[in-house]
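Notes from the 1:1 (GR / supervisor)

We went over the backlog. Supervisor wanted to see one worked example end to end before approving the batch request, so GR pasted a single chain during the call. The sequence is below; no edits were made to it. Supervisor asked that the structure be written out right there so they could see what the output format looks like.
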Amino acid sequence: MFEECSERQLRSIAKIARVVDAPAGTAIARVGEPGNEFYLILDGTVSVDLSGGKPVSLRPGEFFGEMRLLGGDPRSATVVTDTPVRLLVITRENFSVLRKEVPDFTQILLVTLSRRVRHAEQRADRMGAASAIL
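Structure output shown during the call:
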């Protein structure tokens, strides 16, 4: 995500972000709760449980929490660490700074959200097909 950033941009991001370490089994976000942070996975893996489907695993370089900051609705998933993790955390107040400082960030968000919607539609189609068989 930050590969194309200049040193100035990286310094700006470092000023608005903090690094958080969490052990395996830690709930980082819970469905239905408010949330005011965006998370980028630096190390480790997390499971995202969208309730009603198989949990999705996220790895280093992937992120979560953006939907809450963009849309304002309560958290749509529960996120639990599978392994010890290191996360880059950016608050709601600084999320717009990130979008300004990293020109490709909005495009990355759009592509990721589109991919997630497609996967959710595919899961829903499979579940619908499975219940039609029953």
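Supervisor's comment: The radius of gyration is 16 Å.
Batch request approved.
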